[in-house]
Each structure stands twice: as C-alpha cells, then as structure tokens.
UniProtKB/TrEMBL annotation:
UniProt-recorded name of the protein: Argininosuccinate synthase
InterPro entries for the chain: Arginosuc_syn_C, Arginosuc_syn_N, Arginosuc_synth, Arginosuc_synth_CS, Arginosuc_synth_type_1_subfam, AS_cat/multimer_dom_body, Rossmann-like_a/b/a_fold
Catalyzed reactions: L-citrulline + L-aspartate + ATP = 2-(N(omega)-L-arginino)succinate + AMP + diphosphate + H(+)
Protein family according to the UniProt entry: Belongs to the argininosuccinate synthase family. Type 1 subfamily.
Subcellular location: Cytoplasm
C-alpha cells in the first residue's frame, strides 16, 4: 500500500534526490513524482537538472526562478532583524528552506498531489525546516523523506540509482557537502569534521584569500530606506543586483568568511564554514544605522528580539505565530531607519567609518566638548542623585 499517489519532490539534481524518484515509486508505491528545482541564484545551469529529473523517472520537472522573492521576502526581513544565529551565522542557507517549502506546497496544490518529499537525512536542520514549514502552510499534506529511512550508504545509494538508469557521478566525489544560493555558501563534512583542521583555500568560491586581496582599501556606501538596502555607492539597485554586486565587492577583499562550531537543533555540534559577504556587510551596516536612528530603549530591547528571531529561523519556525509577532515589532522599528552607511573594505575586514541620516538622533551640540557645547552640566548632579538613590538606600541598610 503506497503512502501517497502523487508526490512533489524538492529536487537538486544530486544523487540522493535523483534516487528518491525511483525509490518513491518502487519501494513506496507512489504512482507519479513531480520534481521541483528552485533557482535561488545559486548559479547552476538548471536545464540539465530539469532533464535529469525526467530521465530519472519524474512525470514532470518544474524549475522555478524564485531569486527575487528570496531576497525581498526572506533575506531583507532578516537584515532588518539583524539576524545572526549564535551571533555569527547570518542564516544564508536556513532562509531558503521556508521558501522552498512554500513552493512545494503551492505546486502540490496546483497539481493535486497528496504529498511532498525532500532528500534530507535525519541528522541535519533542513529536515526540520522543511517538515515544520510544510505543516504550517498545509497541515493536510503528507511529508515523505526517503533518505531519512532508506538506510543506504552513499555507495549503496549510487548502486540503487544505477539499477534505474541514473548515472553515477562521473568525477571523484568531493568530500565536502556544499549548499549555495545568492546569499552565500555553506561548506561542511570531509576534513572539516575535525574542528582543529584549518580549511583549505580550495573550499572557498566567493571570498579571496587575504594574500590575494587588493593592497588598497575600497570604500562602499550602502543606502537604506526604512531598514531595506536600496542603494550601493549612490546607485539605486534592485534587491538581486545589490546583493550580487556587494558579494563581488566584499568578497574581492576577503570579507565574509565564517568558521564556527554550530549547535544544531537535533542536539549535535557541527563544524560549519560559511561565505556570505554581502549579507554580513548589510547586517553590520544596518545595525550601525539603527544605532543612529533608534532610541536607546528600542535599540536595547530589539537585541533580545533579534536573538529570538534568529533562533526561530534557524529552528525552522519561519511560519510560526511568534515569528509573525516579532515581524510586526521589527517592522514598526524600521520606520526611521533610513540613511547611508560608509564601509571600508580591506584585507578581510569591513569597518564602518561613517553614517548619516535625516532621522539622526545624534546631536553635535550635545555631544561636543568644544565651545559649542549646549549640554547643561549643572543638571547632572541632581540626575545622579535621583538615579543613584536606590543604590544609596540599599547600601545604608546593608552596611556592616
């Protein structure tokens, strides 16, 4: 008895998702498999991937260009929230999962499928992100995860595929597991599983080694409107063009590498390498502009919101009620976050060296120590007395 008659499968063109097609049909009795490959700016040629799905037994092979929506509806809100998981990882890969889940659900509804499927294993975060997002968008859809259940090694998986005419990888398989989209790359596995081992330069593609970067700094100016990046060096750019160009500029100076031990949702620690030049620079610049345009209490309170927001996205809860409530808070704070931030790129560093905004709360007349000082110094004594009163009373009561 099959688990489903018609299934929409998230498809990458790799061994696992290709083998999923005959496996679903042969082992689980699925009658029809429709594949869906999402173009998120990863730079792959998707026509061969579309054809491979058909050759592997798919009845239909969908390729959807979702890059613009990925940046506008997923990346930009995360930038407004300064989302950094464990204060380091800008969620470049995690942000793609709720979008792919949405595309799967929409395709399932369009084609009358009663299930969706993915090629995730049981050890990673992506299985959670897919399963929970799909359940939030359509709780009536079944979610199938063959690779989580088939128990085959990679060699066995390749051999299984060959029985159904799926060719084995022609070249020697890389020891690394790599995921890429317009926001960046994640690299794991192979030699990187030893946290003491320094990553080889060969794993990087978006960022130059420091030795190969220019010997002169480069300045970039990023313009924001209501917390959204809109201009680069004075030029208005659409979201995809802005990310693409900033990836090139920052990556050329070796900016955007992360090497971290990450706490996965399933309870294990994982050594992860990320490249996310534009995303890291944009979060840094946006956070700095907030320091100029938001009041102290909003800025401080938002830091806690940002940490929770990052955990929710990382843990697959993009479509959760709490995430929706935090979105409303973040959007409210962004009304005044407009202006320009100037950044110096040099030898792996992105240092903010200037910021300006028509909504600036910085007052030179109050901040200066020069002759233009307008601050009433006499008011300080009374303020300090009132501010310190609880501490003074406590001290009097507790002195030995």
């Amino acid at each position: 008895m099959g688990r489903a008659k018609k299934v929409v499968l998230a498809y990458s063109g790799g061994v696992d998702t290709s083998v999923c097609i005959p496996y679903l049909k042969t082992e689980w009795g699925v009658e029809e498999v429709i594949t869906l490959a999402a173009d998120l700016g990863q730079g792959d040629e998707l026509e061969p991937i579309r054809k491979k799905a058909l050759d592997s037994g798919a009845s239909e092979s969908l390729v959807i260009d979702a890059t613009a929506g990925f940046i506008k509806d997923y990346a930009f809100p995360a930038i407004q929230a300064n989302a950094l998981y464990e204060n380091r990882y800008p969620l470049s890969t995690a942000l793609a999962r709720p979008l792919i889940a949405k595309l799967l659900v929409e395709a399932a509804e369009k084609y009358g499928a009663d299930a969706v499927a993915h090629g995730c294993t049981g050890k990673g975060n992506d299985q959670v992100r897919f399963d929970v997002s799909i359940a939030a968008l359509n709780p009536n859809l079944k979610v199938l995860a063959p690779a989580r259940e088939w128990g085959m090694s990679r060699e066995e998986t390749i051999a299984y595929g060959e029985k159904f005419g799926i060719p084995a990888p022609v070249k020697k398989s890389s020891p690394y597991s790599i995921d890429r989209n317009l926001l960046g790359r994640s690299i794991e596995a192979g030699p990187l599983e030893d946290p003491w081992t320094e990553p080889l330069e060969e794993i990087y593609a978006l960022t130059k080694a420091i030795a190969d970067t220019p010997n002169e700094p480069e300045y970039v100016e990023i313009g924001f409107e209501k917390g959204l990046p809109t201009h680069l060096n004075g030029e208005a750019l659409d979201s995809v063009a802005l990310i693409t160009r900033l990836n090139e500029l920052a990556g050329n100076h070796g900016v955007g590498r992360i090497d971290m031990l990450e706490n996965r949702l399933v309870g294990i620690k994982s050594r992860e390498i990320y490249e996310a030049p534009a995303l890291l620079v944009l979060i840094q610049a946006h956070r700095d502009l907030e320091s100029l345009t938001l009041t102290a209490d909003v800025t401080h309170y938002k830091r806690g919101i940002e940490e929770t927001y990052s955990q929710l996205v990382y843990n697959g809860l993009w479509y959760s009620p709490l995430k929706g409530a935090l979105d409303a808070f973040v959007q409210q704070t962004q009304e005044r976050v407009s202006g320009t931030v100037r950044i110096k790129l040099f030898k792996g560093n992105a240092n903010i060296v200037g910021r300006q905004s028509a909504n600036s709360l910085y007052s030179p007349d109050l901040a200066t120590y020069g002759a233009e000082d307008k601050f009433d110094h006499k008011a300080a004594e009374g303020f300090i007395y009132v501010w310190g009163l609880p501490t003074r009373v406590w001290s009097q009561q507790n002195r030995l």
